[in-house]
Each structure stands twice: as C-alpha cells, then as structure tokens.
Amino acid sequence: MNNHSVKFLLSAAFFVALINTPVRAAVTPAEAAKLNSELTPLGAERSGNASGSIPAWSGGYKGMPAGHKPGSMNSDPFPDEKPVLVINSKNAAAYKDQLSQTVQLLLQQNPEWRLDVYPTHRTASAPEAFYNYTKTNAATAQLSGDGVGVTHAYGGIPFPLPKNGSEVLWNHFLSWKGVGVEMEGGMYMVDSKGRSSLTAALKMDGFYRYALPGGEKDFDGFFQWHRSLTTAPGRSAGEALIGIWPQDFTSQQPGSWQYMPGQRRVRKLPNVQFDTPNFLMSGLTQFDEAYGFFGSPEQYDWKLVGKKEMYIPYNTNKLFSVTPEELLTPKVLNPNVIRWELHRVWEVEATLKPGVRNVVPKRRVYMDEDTWAIVMADLWDSQNKLYRGAINYPVVNYDLPGVVMRPFMSIDFQQQAYTLGELDTKYLPVTPKPRSFYSAEALVQDALR
User: Fold this and answer.
1) Taking the CB of residue 101, how many other CB atoms lie within 10 A of it?
2) Which of 105, 145, 165, 167 is deepest in the core (most CB within 10 A)?
3) Secondary structure percentages of the chain, helix, strand, coil, to 5
4) What is the pLDDT of residues 5-54, one digit of tens each?
5) DSSP-based three-state secondary structure for 96
6) Which residues pair with residue 399 across a beta bridge?
7) Is 116 exposed, middle or buried (0-12, 13-18, 19+ CB in 10 A)?
8) What is the pTM of this model?
9) Candidates 1.10.1740.10, 2.50.20.10, 3.10.20.310, 3.60.10.10; correct CATH number of 29-448?
C-alpha cells in the first residue's frame, strides 16, 4: 500500500469518526454572556424591532385576572384592545412574506376569513431555575447521532444560541410547559361539510421530568411522561393511554401503552409516531403532526433557514371564552375570537432522507422566538403541493406562569377538513405524580379497582 493510499484511508477514517461524534454547541463565553444582556434568558432578542411593532421583552406577563379559577385560561389578558390591522383575501398579497403558506392558502380558499392583528405583547416567561439551567446548557449541550438526541443538557432550553435546524427543533421539544400538570380537554374534527364532532374528551396527567429543578442526578432520560383517560364519546370511554418520550432517540426509544376496557388488558402500541394515523383524531392526522411536530426527528434532515417576522396567533385566551360549537366553524376556526400578533420566529425546513418513507416529504416549521415552541407548519406532498398545515395557539397560562400552545390545529387541504387538539378547559400545575403512575402496571391496577 503506498503513502497516498494510507493518507486517504486515514482521512476517511477521521471523517467517519467526525460525523459520528456528538456535535458540541459551539458557544463561546462571550456568546453565552448575551443571555444576560442583549438576549432574553431563553435566547430571544431582548430588543424590539426597528419600527416598534414588536416591543422589547420585559419579563413576560405577570398579571392575574380578577376571579381567576386555577387551571383556567379563558381570561383575555388584554380585553380592551382593538385590532390595528385586518388581513384578508383582498390585501393578503401585501403581507405574504409575513404569512405562512398555510395561512395564505386558507385566505385564498375562504374569502370571508380574516386575521385580526392586535398590538404585540411578549408575554412568555419561565421560572428562574429554567433560566439558570438554560445558561448552563448553552456551554454544555450536545446533539447526539444525526441530531436525533440531546446530551449534557437538563432543566432548560438546550441551545439558546442555536447553530442549526436540529438544535432549534430540540429547543421546541424541551420548551417550558411546566413540570407536573393536570389537564382536561377535548379533541375535535371538522369535516368537509363543516360538521364538528368530538373525537375524544380526555383527562390528562403530564410530567415534564426534564424540567424538574434539582432532578438531574436521577434523570432517566425520558423528558416527557404522559397519561390520559378518555371520558367521551361513549364508545371510547374508559380507554387509557401512557406515553414516555426520550431525550436521546439514539440510546432510548419512546414507549406507549393502551388499556382497552372491552378487552380488559393493556397492550404496548407498536408505533405512535411518524406518519401513523392518530386514532385520537379519528385518523385524519398523523402522530408527527401534533404540536407542529412530535416524535423522533430521525426521518428528516433539518435545515435552519433563519429568522423572520411573521403574523402568528398569540395571547389567544379569548378562544376559550366561547363554546366549541362557536369556535369550530367550517374550514377554519372562528376569526372573531382569534388574536394575531407580529412576532419573530425561527424557520426550519425538514426534508425527508433518501430511502425513508413518510407521506410528507417536506415540511417547514416556525418556532416562536420567546418560547421556542412551534406555532405554525407547512407540509408538502410528493408532488410538492401544499398538503397539510398546522396552526398552534399560544395562550397565557396564569398559573405556571408562561405561554403554552393550546390548542393545536391541523388542516388537511385535500380532504378540506381540520382537527383541533387539546382544547383544554384545565391546565393546572400540580405536584408531579411518581414515575410508577406512568407505567403499564399502573394502568392494569387502576382497571382492576
């Protein structure tokens, strides 16, 4: 073997080792120091924009509505404000650079629909412990594998100064939602004829274990534990579901178990991610559409496009003040109760990897800069035609405090139908239930009582 061959083999070996080595967040001490100055504690731009239409962040919403009922989110934080702009099918072209493809198509297909745009309020916040963990993570967090996991991060945003699309996506997964939470709400579908139906009424317990202050020493690697009980409709009442989701899909896999009262047994579900139809939504949407994107990111290459200003729903607590029947209008939600604002978002484009199967080969997601949560998504089919879309609704939760994405909507443009998930009447921080509560054994024991 000659010297050139040896050098080539050594170079190739080094390259293979390099691409299989976890990627460290390339954040310098000077960059991390920005979290105390020009950036918010979670990594958003602290200042407003040049025109003043986006204000500076001043710590988030701190008020409490009169007569507030714990867990309720139906009080409008800004009840006296009026729209400063109305965007409809007639003037949408002037604002197309600040609208998602989904919103543009909805305006085109529904001339009577509109966006009532209000003054922007940056209400997002998180506890001091979450801020402190975020600053630590900035210097230590790493992506594992091909961006399908995060290591050396705990308790806060892992990548407050992101360098690529995978880091932004993991910020979404690990964004602030509380620690222990009790939820009650409904899943709905509106068909092509405008008929709405309840697909599942749920009582839910969530434990965002990753965010538990002081819990890093015995953290088992599963960032989210979830347990739900279906109370309606009657044919599904009594069904129960448990899901656990790992922080690193290279070393651990998600787990889901379902209890069926008719069978009186618990079964492990084979796959509740990717493009598997979501049975809680009557199969109209797929599991990876939840919350804009959910589950392992392994099927896609995630490209960071950049940052931009967009009109997105925000501070939309008013939607909880009407009945589901009033909210669920044909084609799209009732515009009379939806508040839109101008905010900065991160834009990430996902392209399906070669040889991988998913009915959505390309998608684009938009994350609110203040929460890192996905607020919108555009999904294309194999003919590069806009196939589906997502719009999530950030609301102020007065009890956390913070802003959470409730509910989330998925639109199917082919079937001219949409679903609305987690229209919660209750989202209440509580003392987390123990790990044993989120187990298949617990489902069996509760069923036998």
Assistant:
1) 16
2) 167
3) 25, 35, 45
4) 434 333 433 333 333 344 554 688 889 999 989 999 999 999 999 999 99
5) helix
6) none
7) middle
8) 0.93
9) 2.50.20.10
